[in-house]
Protein backbone atom coordinates (compact mmCIF):
# COMPACT_ATOMS: atom_id res chain seq x y z
CA UNK A 1 0.00 0.00 0.00
CA UNK A 2 1.32 3.43 -0.96
CA UNK A 3 1.13 6.47 1.29
CA UNK A 4 -0.60 8.39 -1.49
CA UNK A 5 -3.41 5.79 -1.43
CA UNK A 6 -4.36 7.07 2.01
CA UNK A 7 -4.93 10.67 0.98
CA UNK A 8 -8.35 12.33 0.94
CA UNK A 9 -9.66 15.88 1.03
CA UNK A 10 -11.94 17.23 3.71
CA UNK A 11 -13.15 20.67 4.83
CA UNK A 12 -11.31 21.93 7.91
CA UNK A 13 -14.59 22.85 9.61
CA UNK A 14 -15.41 19.14 9.98
CA UNK A 15 -12.53 18.65 12.44
CA UNK A 16 -14.25 18.17 15.79
CA UNK A 17 -12.82 20.34 18.57
CA UNK A 18 -15.17 18.97 21.24
CA UNK A 19 -17.53 16.00 21.55
CA UNK A 20 -21.13 16.45 20.40
CA UNK A 21 -23.88 14.18 21.66
CA UNK A 22 -25.74 12.28 20.40
CA UNK A 23 -22.94 10.72 18.37
CA UNK A 24 -23.66 10.04 14.72
CA UNK A 25 -22.75 6.57 13.45
CA UNK A 26 -21.87 5.58 9.88
CA UNK A 27 -22.75 1.89 9.37
CA UNK A 28 -20.83 0.26 6.50
CA UNK A 29 -21.76 -3.15 5.15
CA UNK A 30 -19.86 -4.72 2.24
CA UNK A 31 -21.24 -3.72 -1.16
CA UNK A 32 -23.86 -1.44 0.39
CA UNK A 33 -24.18 2.34 0.50
CA UNK A 34 -23.33 3.54 4.04
CA UNK A 35 -26.27 4.44 6.26
CA UNK A 36 -26.55 6.56 9.37
CA UNK A 37 -27.76 4.94 12.58
CA UNK A 38 -27.86 6.00 16.24
CA UNK A 39 -25.86 4.66 19.18
CA UNK A 40 -28.97 2.90 20.64
CA UNK A 41 -29.58 1.28 17.24
CA UNK A 42 -25.95 0.18 17.11
CA UNK A 43 -26.15 -1.40 20.57
CA UNK A 44 -29.24 -3.33 19.49
CA UNK A 45 -27.32 -4.74 16.52
CA UNK A 46 -24.90 -6.56 18.88
CA UNK A 47 -26.62 -9.89 19.71
CA UNK A 48 -26.31 -12.12 22.75
CA UNK A 49 -23.30 -14.41 22.51
CA UNK A 50 -21.21 -11.89 20.57
CA UNK A 51 -18.13 -10.31 22.15
CA UNK A 52 -17.36 -6.60 22.48
CA UNK A 53 -13.71 -5.90 23.31
CA UNK A 54 -12.69 -2.52 24.80
CA UNK A 55 -9.39 -0.91 25.76
CA UNK A 56 -9.14 0.20 29.41
CA UNK A 57 -5.97 2.31 29.05
CA UNK A 58 -5.84 5.69 30.79
CA UNK A 59 -4.20 8.74 29.22
CA UNK A 60 -1.28 10.27 31.11
CA UNK A 61 -0.85 13.99 31.64
CA UNK A 62 2.55 14.41 30.02
CA UNK A 63 2.42 17.58 27.86
CA UNK A 64 4.44 20.34 29.52
CA UNK A 65 5.01 23.95 28.41
CA UNK A 66 8.40 25.47 29.24
CA UNK A 67 8.83 29.04 30.43
CA UNK A 68 9.91 29.77 26.85
CA UNK A 69 6.46 28.42 25.78
CA UNK A 70 8.01 25.37 24.13
CA UNK A 71 5.70 22.35 24.13
CA UNK A 72 7.32 19.12 25.38
CA UNK A 73 5.71 15.68 25.36
CA UNK A 74 7.27 13.36 27.96
CA UNK A 75 7.10 9.77 26.70
CA UNK A 76 9.12 7.26 28.73
CA UNK A 77 11.54 7.48 31.61
CA UNK A 78 14.90 6.08 30.51
CA UNK A 79 16.96 6.24 33.70
CA UNK A 80 16.49 7.31 37.31
CA UNK A 81 19.41 9.07 39.03
CA UNK A 82 19.83 10.37 42.54
CA UNK A 83 18.87 13.99 41.75
CA UNK A 84 17.61 13.79 38.18
CA UNK A 85 16.12 11.46 35.61
CA UNK A 86 16.43 10.86 31.87
CA UNK A 87 13.37 10.90 29.60
CA UNK A 88 12.44 10.26 26.00
CA UNK A 89 10.54 13.34 24.82
CA UNK A 90 9.23 15.02 21.70
CA UNK A 91 9.72 18.76 21.27
CA UNK A 92 10.87 21.16 18.49
CA UNK A 93 14.60 20.83 19.16
CA UNK A 94 16.03 22.10 15.84
CA UNK A 95 17.37 25.36 17.27
CA UNK A 96 18.76 23.76 20.43
CA UNK A 97 22.23 22.24 20.96
CA UNK A 98 23.24 19.34 23.18
CA UNK A 99 23.54 20.72 26.72
CA UNK A 100 21.01 23.53 26.21
CA UNK A 101 18.52 23.92 29.02
CA UNK A 102 14.85 24.89 29.23
CA UNK A 103 13.02 26.06 32.32
CA UNK A 104 9.91 24.07 33.25
CA UNK A 105 7.16 25.04 35.74
CA UNK A 106 7.72 24.70 39.49
CA UNK A 107 11.50 24.99 39.29
CA UNK A 108 12.30 22.00 37.07
CA UNK A 109 15.07 22.30 34.46
CA UNK A 110 15.33 20.17 31.31
CA UNK A 111 18.72 19.65 29.59
CA UNK A 112 18.97 18.29 26.05
CA UNK A 113 21.15 15.15 26.09
CA UNK A 114 20.53 13.58 22.69
CA UNK A 115 18.80 14.73 19.50
CA UNK A 116 16.60 12.58 17.28
CA UNK A 117 12.99 11.42 17.30
CA UNK A 118 12.44 11.08 20.18
CA UNK A 119 15.00 13.22 21.97
CA UNK A 120 16.66 12.31 25.29
CA UNK A 121 16.62 14.93 28.04
CA UNK A 122 17.68 15.09 31.67
CA UNK A 123 15.36 16.75 34.18
CA UNK A 124 16.61 18.37 37.42
CA UNK A 125 15.40 17.61 40.04
CA UNK A 126 13.92 14.21 39.14
CA UNK A 127 10.34 14.61 37.92
CA UNK A 128 7.56 12.16 38.86
CA UNK A 129 3.96 11.33 37.97
CA UNK A 130 2.84 13.43 40.95
CA UNK A 131 4.66 16.40 39.42
CA UNK A 132 3.12 15.79 35.99
CA UNK A 133 -0.32 15.73 37.62
CA UNK A 134 0.14 19.39 38.59
CA UNK A 135 2.28 20.85 35.77
CA UNK A 136 1.26 18.84 32.69
CA UNK A 137 -1.75 18.62 30.37
CA UNK A 138 -3.29 15.71 28.48
CA UNK A 139 -1.60 15.27 25.08
CA UNK A 140 -4.43 16.27 22.75
CA UNK A 141 -3.77 15.72 19.04
CA UNK A 142 -2.09 18.76 17.44
CA UNK A 143 -4.88 19.12 14.86
CA UNK A 144 -7.36 19.86 17.67
CA UNK A 145 -5.07 22.58 18.99
CA UNK A 146 -4.78 24.00 15.48
CA UNK A 147 -8.52 23.89 14.81
CA UNK A 148 -9.21 25.57 18.17
CA UNK A 149 -6.41 28.10 17.61
CA UNK A 150 -5.45 27.33 21.20
CA UNK A 151 -2.43 25.28 22.29
CA UNK A 152 -3.59 24.63 25.85
CA UNK A 153 -6.30 22.23 26.95
CA UNK A 154 -9.70 23.45 28.03
CA UNK A 155 -10.87 22.27 31.45
CA UNK A 156 -13.45 19.88 29.98
CA UNK A 157 -10.75 17.91 28.14
CA UNK A 158 -9.98 16.25 31.49
CA UNK A 159 -13.22 14.26 31.14
CA UNK A 160 -13.75 14.45 27.37
CA UNK A 161 -10.42 12.76 26.58
CA UNK A 162 -10.69 9.78 28.97
CA UNK A 163 -12.93 6.79 28.41
CA UNK A 164 -15.60 5.96 30.99
CA UNK A 165 -13.69 2.79 31.96
CA UNK A 166 -10.11 4.13 31.84
CA UNK A 167 -8.27 2.33 34.65
CA UNK A 168 -4.75 1.36 33.54
CA UNK A 169 -2.55 4.47 33.36
CA UNK A 170 0.09 4.56 30.65
CA UNK A 171 -1.23 5.93 27.34
CA UNK A 172 -0.12 8.90 25.26
CA UNK A 173 -3.52 9.14 23.53
CA UNK A 174 -7.10 8.07 24.16
CA UNK A 175 -8.70 5.08 22.40
CA UNK A 176 -11.16 7.53 20.94
CA UNK A 177 -13.79 5.10 19.60
CA UNK A 178 -14.60 4.39 23.25
CA UNK A 179 -15.40 8.06 23.96
CA UNK A 180 -18.85 7.54 22.40
CA UNK A 181 -19.98 5.11 25.09
CA UNK A 182 -20.52 5.01 28.84
CA UNK A 183 -20.60 2.29 31.48
CA UNK A 184 -24.38 2.04 31.22
CA UNK A 185 -24.01 1.08 27.55
CA UNK A 186 -21.67 -1.77 28.48
CA UNK A 187 -23.94 -2.88 31.33
CA UNK A 188 -26.91 -2.88 28.96
CA UNK A 189 -25.04 -5.12 26.52
CA UNK A 190 -23.92 -7.47 29.30
CA UNK A 191 -27.48 -7.76 30.60
CA UNK A 192 -28.55 -8.98 27.15
CA UNK A 193 -25.89 -11.67 27.06
CA UNK A 194 -23.12 -9.85 25.17
CA UNK A 195 -19.66 -10.70 26.50
CA UNK A 196 -17.87 -7.42 27.29
CA UNK A 197 -14.12 -7.94 27.61
CA UNK A 198 -11.40 -5.47 28.60
CA UNK A 199 -7.79 -5.45 27.47
CA UNK A 200 -5.03 -2.86 27.72
CA UNK A 201 -2.96 -1.23 25.02
CA UNK A 202 -1.01 1.91 25.90
CA UNK A 203 -0.83 4.17 22.84
CA UNK A 204 2.75 5.30 22.33
CA UNK A 205 5.07 7.42 20.24
CA UNK A 206 3.84 6.10 16.91
CA UNK A 207 0.55 7.96 17.13
CA UNK A 208 2.41 11.30 17.06
CA UNK A 209 4.90 10.60 14.28
CA UNK A 210 3.85 10.93 10.63
CA UNK A 211 4.34 8.12 8.14
CA UNK A 212 7.29 9.12 5.94
CA UNK A 213 7.84 5.94 3.88
CA UNK A 214 6.18 6.13 0.47
CA UNK A 215 5.57 2.36 0.64
CA UNK A 216 3.72 1.55 3.86
CA UNK A 217 5.46 -1.81 4.17
CA UNK A 218 8.69 0.16 4.75
CA UNK A 219 7.20 2.10 7.68
CA UNK A 220 8.64 1.19 11.08
CA UNK A 221 5.83 1.00 13.62
CA UNK A 222 6.83 1.86 17.19
CA UNK A 223 6.01 -0.92 19.63
CA UNK A 224 3.29 -0.46 22.23
CA UNK A 225 2.67 -2.36 25.46
CA UNK A 226 -0.46 -4.50 25.75
CA UNK A 227 -2.06 -7.11 28.00
CA UNK A 228 -5.10 -9.39 27.86
CA UNK A 229 -5.96 -12.00 30.48
CA UNK A 230 -5.95 -15.70 29.67
CA UNK A 231 -9.60 -15.96 30.70
CA UNK A 232 -10.56 -13.15 28.30
CA UNK A 233 -8.64 -14.71 25.43
CA UNK A 234 -10.31 -18.08 26.05
CA UNK A 235 -13.74 -16.41 25.94
CA UNK A 236 -12.86 -14.83 22.59
CA UNK A 237 -11.63 -18.17 21.23
CA UNK A 238 -14.84 -19.86 22.39
CA UNK A 239 -16.97 -17.21 20.68
CA UNK A 240 -15.06 -17.72 17.42
CA UNK A 241 -15.57 -21.48 17.67
CA UNK A 242 -19.30 -20.94 18.14
CA UNK A 243 -19.43 -18.59 15.09
CA UNK A 244 -20.31 -15.60 17.26
CA UNK A 245 -18.91 -12.24 16.17
CA UNK A 246 -16.09 -10.29 17.79
CA UNK A 247 -16.67 -6.52 17.85
CA UNK A 248 -13.48 -4.51 18.40
CA UNK A 249 -14.04 -1.06 19.88
CA UNK A 250 -11.19 0.85 18.26
CA UNK A 251 -8.01 0.26 16.28
CA UNK A 252 -5.98 -0.23 19.48
CA UNK A 253 -8.17 -3.15 20.50
CA UNK A 254 -7.95 -4.55 16.99
CA UNK A 255 -4.15 -4.44 17.01
CA UNK A 256 -3.97 -6.38 20.27
CA UNK A 257 -6.42 -9.08 19.15
CA UNK A 258 -4.71 -9.58 15.81
CA UNK A 259 -1.25 -9.57 17.45
CA UNK A 260 -2.21 -12.22 19.99
CA UNK A 261 -3.80 -14.36 17.28
CA UNK A 262 -0.46 -14.39 15.46
CA UNK A 263 1.93 -14.79 18.40
CA UNK A 264 -0.04 -16.36 21.24
CA UNK A 265 1.61 -13.86 23.60
CA UNK A 266 -0.96 -12.42 26.03
CA UNK A 267 1.21 -9.62 27.45
CA UNK A 268 4.10 -7.82 25.83
CA UNK A 269 4.67 -5.32 23.04
CA UNK A 270 3.35 -5.14 19.51
CA UNK A 271 4.47 -3.27 16.42
CA UNK A 272 1.93 -4.90 14.13
CA UNK A 273 1.02 -2.93 11.00
CA UNK A 274 -2.35 -3.89 9.53
CA UNK A 275 -3.12 -2.79 5.98
CA UNK A 276 -4.55 -4.07 2.71
CA UNK A 277 -3.56 -7.69 2.33
CA UNK A 278 -3.52 -8.33 6.09
CA UNK A 279 -5.65 -11.21 7.32
CA UNK A 280 -7.94 -10.30 10.21
CA UNK A 281 -8.22 -13.56 12.15
CA UNK A 282 -10.23 -12.40 15.17
CA UNK A 283 -12.11 -9.16 14.51
CA UNK A 284 -15.43 -9.39 12.64
CA UNK A 285 -16.80 -5.90 13.35
CA UNK A 286 -14.69 -2.77 13.69
CA UNK A 287 -15.98 0.31 15.53
CA UNK A 288 -13.68 3.27 15.00
CA UNK A 289 -13.52 7.01 14.53
CA UNK A 290 -12.72 8.75 11.25
CA UNK A 291 -8.95 8.87 10.80
CA UNK A 292 -6.51 11.33 9.35
CA UNK A 293 -5.15 11.00 5.80
CA UNK A 294 -1.86 9.13 5.38
CA UNK A 295 -2.15 7.43 8.79
CA UNK A 296 -1.56 3.82 9.81
CA UNK A 297 -5.01 3.92 11.45
CA UNK A 298 -6.64 4.62 8.09
CA UNK A 299 -4.51 1.84 6.58
CA UNK A 300 -5.89 -0.55 9.21
CA UNK A 301 -9.49 0.30 8.29
CA UNK A 302 -8.64 -0.14 4.59
CA UNK A 303 -7.14 -3.52 5.41
CA UNK A 304 -10.26 -4.56 7.30
CA UNK A 305 -12.66 -3.37 4.59
CA UNK A 306 -10.93 -2.28 1.37
CA UNK A 307 -9.24 0.89 0.22
CA UNK A 308 -11.96 1.61 -2.35
CA UNK A 309 -14.69 0.98 0.22
CA UNK A 310 -13.03 3.30 2.73
CA UNK A 311 -12.58 6.09 0.20
CA UNK A 312 -16.19 5.81 -1.00
CA UNK A 313 -17.51 5.74 2.56
CA UNK A 314 -15.36 8.66 3.72
CA UNK A 315 -16.59 10.67 0.73
CA UNK A 316 -20.18 9.85 1.73
CA UNK A 317 -19.49 10.82 5.36
CA UNK A 318 -17.94 14.14 4.36
CA UNK A 319 -20.87 14.91 2.07
CA UNK A 320 -23.18 14.21 5.02
CA UNK A 321 -21.04 16.40 7.30
CA UNK A 322 -19.93 13.77 9.79
CA UNK A 323 -17.47 15.22 12.29
CA UNK A 324 -13.92 13.97 11.94
CA UNK A 325 -11.08 12.55 14.05
CA UNK A 326 -10.59 12.16 17.82
CA UNK A 327 -13.63 14.13 19.04
CA UNK A 328 -15.64 13.31 15.92
CA UNK A 329 -18.28 10.75 15.01
CA UNK A 330 -18.14 6.94 14.83
CA UNK A 331 -17.99 4.48 11.95
CA UNK A 332 -18.76 0.74 12.07
CA UNK A 333 -17.33 -1.66 9.49
CA UNK A 334 -18.52 -5.21 8.83
CA UNK A 335 -15.99 -7.70 7.49
From TrEMBL:
Keyword terms: Cytoplasm, Isomerase, Queuosine biosynthesis, S-adenosyl-L-methionine, Transferase
GO molecular function annotation: S-adenosylmethionine:tRNA ribosyltransferase-isomerase activity
Pfam families (alphabetical): Queuosine_synth
Gene Ontology biological-process annotations: tRNA queuosine(34) biosynthetic process
Protein name: S-adenosylmethionine:tRNA ribosyltransferase-isomerase
